[in-house]
Amino acid sequence: MIRVEGVVTRFGSRVIHDGVSLHIKRGEIYGILGESGSGKSVLMKEMIMLLAPTAGRIAILGTPLETIGVTEAQALRRKWGVLFQFGALFSSLTIAQNIEVQLKEYTNLTRKMRQALVHSKLTMVGLDASVGLLYPSQLSGGMVKRAALARALAMEPELLFLDEPTSGLDPIGARNFDALIVELRALLGVTVVVITHDLDSVFTIVDRMSVLADKRVVAEGSIDEILTSTHPFVEEFFKNEYTQKYREEHHHV
Amino acid sequence: MKCIFLTYTITNDRLALHSQGEWRLHTVRQVAQELEHLPRASDITWDFSGLEGFDSAGVLLFIDTLKRLEEGATVHIVGYTPQQEAMYQLLHQTDTTSPIEPPREGVVMRMGVEGVALYQLWRDFFTFLGHLVMAWVQTLRHPRNFRFKEIVYHIHRSGLNALLITGLSAFLVGLVIAYQSGVQLEKFGADLFIVDTVGISITRELAPMITAIVIAGRSGSAYTAEIGAMKITEEIAAMRTMGFDPYYFLVIPRIVALMVALPLLIFFADMMGIVGGMVASKLQLGISMGQFVDRLSEVLEVKHYLLGMIKGPVFAFLIAMIGCFRGLQVAHNTESIGLHTTASVVNGIFLVIAFDALFSVLYTELGL
Ligand SMILES: Nc1ncnc2c1ncn2[C@@H]1O[C@H](COP(=O)(O)OP(=O)(O)OP(=O)(O)O)[C@@H](O)[C@H]1O
Ligand SMILES: [Mg+2]
């Protein structure tokens, strides 16, 4: 589904990635972990063609991004939905218009069909229909995340990129969001790439993940495989009661 | 019947429907058309086992069609997958009828809304003026806390950096005025009066006006955009919570800076405009620089220069005040910055021209 090989990223003289490789399979929820500033968002931006890596290869849905043409790129863009770290809803459009905008531009649906779809997306992410008439500045932080997810889902994407979907949410809201992602995967069969710091999400929804540290991927695999890593950052990250409990429950101690 | 997404057979009022192909965003429009031409029947069996793919658009279409068919028939659904069932369960209670666009208002309603908005704008404007006076009083009471550093910074930005453009504009205007009046004066053999025309019109009217218009476009818009962006990112709200009054920290320094900078710019524009006139006189009428300057010192009374200069701080106050007011008016979306920046420049230039007319009337009445 997604193949990242030997990606190097440099901003001026600052090296952010130095040979990042990972591999994401169809239908899985894949986590990208790492401390603040380790280049998770930058890696995601490279996957969605907002940035080009300095070196290395990325292929999405079998299409290599280095050699992609304009029309191919445009077609590829419609196959994924992106939830940005800070929502990035269009501030001059209502929530409903935010969700509708791509449908209007890229499909031949009637107004009534678009309306039904907008409502179905709002239902899927657990927002009330009346929220559709509000503007982004009138929403709470958690509602912005949900609305942004609804917009990401508008084109029925095969692939969903989520940048810290649960950061800034209360614990209950965060768990609901996790449940929502799992449910969406079951419903729509989407592949989800999620950047997260949230240990709850890591343990409950993520199938496989990779950990970014020292400018590269220091561990990749399921949670059990990650826990066997002896890299200092991985040990630090997972050194807490949560992991302790998980290990006890799964007889790893 | 030949269809891509649907096949059916009908026997004695019994309709057997088979869905097939992909029912997705890009196809549902066509699927819907095919579904419209179904024959009537009282007993319908709808088989989904042939469906190759679907998404929520497909499911929504199914829900819609099912409702329609069930009005006149009993419908049996067979051959669906658990995934389709789950999606149906989630979506079939969705309220899909309530509008997603705010209702269109009628003319009367819109006039009312516009009227209220206008009233609010004026009310906000007077509130703004009130705050401004308060901030001034505070500034005068504690002159020590005066934000000198910020003022110097803004003078640098809106004054010094604007020298080139105001100078060039004034030079060109001087040149044009001299050329145009030169043609007329030459006919009467009153060549030397070109100096009177250029000297007085530049210092008294044109230099202040040209400079103010350039600055309204340049600094007025910048003030609006800066303050507006701060409003959107909630920086102004953050300032308020820390006890920093935005009028004191943002508005007053900008107004004071422009009131200092604009007269200086006008002085520079006076000189450049006269130089422009001088160049044109030399080229067209053959008046030498020496002659020009001699004549200038005879006819250009200091009063003309001062009358032009007095307008400087007034224009500056108007431009900076409108710029800041419009900035603070920006609402929580990016479009609003554009609207208010435009309004800021338009209002600023209009006020400059209106007040210039006012000054003219005033000067004439006072016999100056
Ligand atoms: N456009 C850019 N120009 C220069 N440096 C950049 C740019 N974008 C990101 N960086 C740098 O790249 C590094 C990684 O940034 P990135 O946003 O990917 O971090 P992150 O892992 O997503 O962190 P967080 O968890 O805080 O979101 C940072 O050091 C940042 O300063
Ligand atoms: Mg990030």
Task: Quickly describe the structure.
The complex is a heterodimer of chains A (253) and B (368). Chain A has helices at 40-47, 70-77, 95-106, 111-124, 141-153, 171-188, 199-204, 223-227, 232-237, 241-249; strands at residues 2-11, 14-24, 29-34, 55-60, 63-64, 80-83, 159-163, 191-195, 208-213, 216-221.
Name the quaternary structure.
heterodimer
In helices, the fraction of residues of chain B equals over 70%
Shape of chain B: elongated
Mean pLDDT of chain A: 86
Tally of distinct domains of chain B: 2
> Could you give me the name of the CATH homologous superfamily of the domain at 26-49 and 70-221 in chain A?
P-loop containing nucleotide triphosphate hydrolases
Major beta sheet of chain A, specifics? Answer: 6 strands, mixed
Give the CATH topology of the domain at 26-49 and 70-221 in chain A. Rossmann fold
If you had to describe this structure to a student in words, what would you say it looks like?
The complex is a heterodimer of chains A (253) and B (368). The two termini of chain A are 35 Å apart. In chain A, strand 4 (55-60) and strand 5 (63-64) form a beta hairpin. Chain A is 39% helix and 24% strand. Chain A has a domain at 26-49 and 70-221: Rossmann fold, CATH 3.40.50. Chain A has 253 residues and is of the alpha/beta class. Chain A is built from 10 helices and 10 strands. In chain A, the strands form 2 sheets. A 6-stranded mixed beta sheet of chain A has the order 6-7-8-3-9-10. A 4-stranded antiparallel beta sheet of chain A has the order 2-1-4-5, with helices on one face. Chain B is α/β, with parallel strands linked by helices and 368 residues long. Chain B folds into 2 domains: 6-93, STAS domain (Transcription Regulator spoIIAA, 2-Layer Sandwich), CATH 3.30.750; 130-366, no CATH class. Helix content of chain B is 72%, strand content 8%. In chain B, strands 1-2-4-6 form a 4-stranded mixed beta sheet, with helices on one face. In chain B, a hairpin with a 2-residue loop joins strand 1 (6-11) and strand 2 (14-19). The longest helix of chain B is centred in the middle third of the chain and has 40 residues, at 193-232. The radius of gyration of chain B is 36 Å and the shape is elongated. The structure holds adenosine-5'-triphosphate (ATP) and magnesium ion. The site of adenosine-5'-triphosphate has 11 residues of chain A, from helix 1.
